[in-house]
Amino acid sequence: MPSSPVAPLDALEQWLPPEVISVVERETPIPTIAQLAGAKAMEDPGLVRGDIGQIVGIDPELEVLYGPPVGLPDLRAAVADMYQRALGWTHDDTPLTAANVTICTGAAEALTLLFKCFAKDRTVGLLRGHWENYRNGVDLAGGRTVIVDVFDEAGNFTPDGLEAQIREHDVRVLVANFPCNPTGAVLDAHEMAQLAQVAERTGIIVMADEVYARLRYDGKPPETLVRYAPGHAISLSSASKEYLLPGARVGYVVSARSEVTDRVLRKLVRANTASPNVLGQKRLLSCLNADLADMRAGRPPALITRIRDEMAKRRTRLVEILERHDMSLVGRSGHAPVGTIFLMAALPSWFPRDDTAFSEEAIAAGAVSTIPGSAFGIPSSVRFSYGAMTLEALERLDSNLTAFKASFAS
């Protein structure tokens, strides 16, 4: 696989499938007219709107109009500002703007559309330990998946080993999920830079799933891979975890190349879901504006700080409990899980069956609910989510596991 002389995000026509190019290039007069009419109506209230495909004027208090396909302008600008302030965007001193952001119906829609753009007839690399729904997105897009290792047995990030796997399997797209669901593994700034160099040498596109970027508990600042590989990496995130809004279904894509966000995804979001949830966008904008006000004043953002501090306490207590019950941590060897709301633990020696049986029998016994590690490519382990585990619930978990273990001893 030769190194790419031109960054893939600067040569989109070479990457996008014909059907995607067709949608992107097709003239779509409805949103164009709607934008023109909306702007004119602001100047001239006498304009009669005959372009709105929605019932209005019966009960204005109930009306929620369609939003722009790429999201509310104020929210797009707020997300760009947050990336610059919270995730250290400094590349070439070129500021991110609203044009570098697309709002989607959750990070799930972002993944679906990006796979449609880049996965068809290509091999997509997934981490050993990955969110199982990635496979569905790749399959639906007509691609194929391969598992790649980014850490060696000692837990060291191995850029040379990763590059060798990319070349061996002809990987063209890599899904890099850090902090990682399910293991909680993270990359530091040096490792991010090394991953970016691998992308540049191999000419791949990196879909950086950074939903948990700000839920990091090692005291180090959150990172975005887009900062290190602007011509190769596309970041996607959502309001689901950081702002407690999974039901609002609001996600976003950030790219240093506005051609991706303001043109390609603009057309694809409209073709897929018309526009993201307007009510959810307004709720997220309120949360983001409060955090941005704190950051502009030199204060830690109150909401995300409160969430992060609580999750850190839960993670620490969960680790203590699992180790006491002979359930060693699984993921990046030699490194504690310091991100997301998840961690993986190996099956204890006192349990005689596989991970699926553990999950099913622990539920039946009223002990705990977990997800089998085989769903994430890590068999003989289970995933715990401490997102819903209060400190009180964690103490119950301790006693529940004691009783569950005793049932096997007897």
* Helix-and-strand structural type: alpha/beta
Series of H and E elements = HHHEHEHEHEHEEEHHHEEHEEH
Count of beta strands: 11
Number of helices: 12
N-C termini distance: 58 Å
Q: Estimate the helix proportion, in percent.
A: 40-55%
Mean pLDDT: 94
**Spatial strand order of the main sheet:** 1-7-6-5-4-2-3
Beta strand %:
5-15%
Alpha-carbon Rg, integer: 23 Å
Stretches where pLDDT falls below 50 for ≥5 residues?
none
Which sheet architecture does the biggest sheet show? 7 strands, mixed
The 3D shape can be described as globular
Concise structural overview:
With 410 residues, the chain is an alpha/beta fold. It is built from twelve helices and eleven strands.
Descriptive report:
This protein has 410 residues and is of the alpha/beta class. 41% of the residues lie in helices and 12% in strands. The chain is built from twelve helices and eleven strands. It has helices at residues 18-25, 29-43, 73-86, 106-118, 133-140, 159-168, 189-202, 258-273, 278-296, 302-324, 355-364, 391-409, and strands at 101-104, 123-127, 144-148, 171-177, 205-209, 233-238, 251-254, 329-330, 342-346, 371-372, 381-385. It has a seven-stranded mixed beta sheet, sandwiched between helices. A four-stranded antiparallel beta sheet has the order 8-9-11-10. β4 (171-177), α7 and β5 (205-209) form a beta-alpha-beta unit. α1 (18-25) packs across α8 (258-273), α3 packs parallel to α9 and α10 packs parallel to α12. The protein is globular and about 80 Å long. The model has no long low-confidence stretch (mean pLDDT 94).
